[in-house]
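Dear U.,

For the methods section draft, I wanted the exact inputs and outputs in one place so we can describe them consistently. I've listed the two proteins in the order they'll appear in the manuscript figures. Please don't edit the token lines directly; just add comments below if something needs changing.

First protein:
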Amino acid sequence: MFRFQWSKEVLNYLKDNQGLINDLELAFAEYRAEGTQIPTQGVLDMIAPMQYIWGIHNHIVLLRLVLEDAQWKIRIEVVKPTRSPYDEIFLG
């Protein structure tokens, strides 16, 4: 089993965008329920050893797997939308 760790930036993003990211919150819950270190949904790309970019529900998530005190932890370091909510306004 593993545990999640959240950067302060990610926690603030989740808090500030609660209404916009229900699908993303569900994806994290499903990821935890899978009990694996690698999510089975979305698109995952390894960018360095134990470091991944996860594309899920119109967001990019930076994950880092770390072993601390004999416990695997998945650090969620950055979450960014793939598109700005203003894209449709400016780009049509």
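Second protein (the one for the lower panel):
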Amino acid sequence: ALFGLIAVEARPLQWFLWMATLGGPLLLLGGARLRLPPEFAPRLTRFLIFALWLEVPVCAAQYARLAEVQIGDWYTGTWGNANLVGLWAAVALSVCGVRLVTATAIPDRARTWIVAGGVAAAAAYLVWGASAKLYSASIFGAAGVVTAMLLLADGGLFRIGTWIRAVIVILAISWTGLLAESWVRDNFEGFVSNLENSEKRTLLTRVVFGVAERYNSILGVGPGMLGSRAASAASGDVLYKETESAFASLLGPAPKPEGWAMSGLWNADVVEDVFYKSALLTMPFSGWGSLRAELGWPAVILLFFYLLSLGRQMAAIAARHSGAWSIGVAAAVGCVGLLPMLFFDNVLEQPHITGPLAILVITARGVAGALKGTKASASDRSTALESSVDHSRPHSSLPRGRP
């Protein structure tokens, strides 16, 4: 950051905006610690399940009204955002899948199986209809990683039953892929074609290989100067966006690195054409790209291990505290899922993603702290009770045959 200020362009206001959009969420995810009552986790779980079911009739009505009229993005739900519907529905479905593979709290009643199956079916329906399938795929991949974390934490990786369930899940996924072979092939070919000719690929090529020709290739150009939302907010003269707000006029014009890297990548023609393509593969915005350009390769490496270790912490909480199991797994899947999603967009700078994720992380950490404190207090009371027993007379000194 100091290198960017001294050697590139002195714009301290960009630092503050970057801190509010990216630095703040990172500190919130890693540092926020609240002591929450143990019953808060199941209450939050029930509320989230209610919110999931609330989206089903709304999305069904939107599909019936718009599916044959508009291209994609039908399932916006009550959030008005089709990406969010698919993202959080994929998280809910992943929690069901992880519970099934790890055999955690297997339902012993038919009613429980029916309810769990209904939740999984509702989540699968929302994932099917929502946009941003790349987000859902990232979440499902993260669910596999979190499953391995949980099994390693409790030793379940070495149980034959775990391997049998894992093999069944893999075979089911493979069988589904074979049934939808043409759909998978068409989407994969479309993915490759869109990425090869996309503005996102051009941006990533510039920030990975072109930065060294103009700036320091290791340290970057400073926070809020290239690719981040803070940089985009000041770049109305380079990017196709509304520039009439007082905030945009206060920050503009675009920082020099932003003007160089974004030149010609997001104009009126591209915005009009993206309607017929995959937006995530076309838009020249990437969390990893902006981080590499602004803070350099060390920040990329640190953020990767930061999110991975945060996911591992959430998985460990879920393994140790059954009361926070669902919340901990959801938080772990969300943290690990950010790793691939950051390739496609600046998701860590979007409050509608980091906000709910921060709630999950803080809840898991807070409830785990409360449960740990409760166990410690119970242990202290037990120790105090044992120490209060009168051991002044040894039992061997009592007369034989008397109580």
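Candidate sentences for the figure legend, describing the second protein: The chain has a mean pLDDT of 80. The longest helix spans residues 351-388.

Thanks,
Y.
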